[in-house]
Amino acid sequence: MKGLDTNILVRYLTQDEPDQALRAARFIEKASADDRLLINSVVLCELVWVLESAYDFHKEIIVDVIEKIFATSQFEIEDKSTAWLAFNDYKRHKADFADCLIGRENSALGCSETMTFDKRLKGLEGFKLL
């Protein structure tokens, strides 16, 4: 297994740097079920943030992209079940993906709730406003 940095996924998805996009595509597309590519939690968070902030992608497009990443056989997602729960929270709420993942990871690690000042997280399972 090989790990992927966020910039590889960004180039692959946006095709904004032709040379890097081609190299990323070749690398990802030649990976197999026997040599999967790890996308860790930090990379997922960075990817969503970069697509939102640097590329101005709308949430609906980002949701579609992340769903495809989860379904792609070459990709191994770190703690996939927790990441999937966080992704579903992100789809249904105003919260940032990173916040959703923080809450779900904290819950998986035994936290009864995650304390926050972020009012956008009000009502999101696992969070409590301080």
Explain what you see.
- With 130 residues, this protein is mainly alpha-helical.
- The chain has one domain: Rossmann fold (3-Layer(aba) Sandwich).
- It is 56% helix and 11% strand.
- The protein contains 6 helices and 5 strands, in the order E-H-H-E-H-H-E-H-H-E-E.
- It has helices at 6-14, 18-30, 41-53, 59-71, 80-92, 97-108; strands spanning 2-3, 37-39, 75-77, 114-116, 127-129.
- Strands 1-2-3 form a 3-stranded parallel sheet.
- Helix 1 crosses helix 3 (41-53) and helix 5 packs across helix 6 (97-108).
- The model has no long low-confidence stretch (mean pLDDT 96).
Set out the fold topology.
Blueprint: E1 2-3, H1 6-14, H2 18-30, E2 37-39, H3 41-53, H4 59-71, E3 75-77, H5 80-92, H6 97-108, E4 114-116, E5 127-129
Parallel strand pairs: 1-2, 2-3, 4-5
Summarize the structure.
The protein has a single domain, classed as 3-Layer(aba) Sandwich (Rossmann fold). Helix content is 56%, strand content 11%.
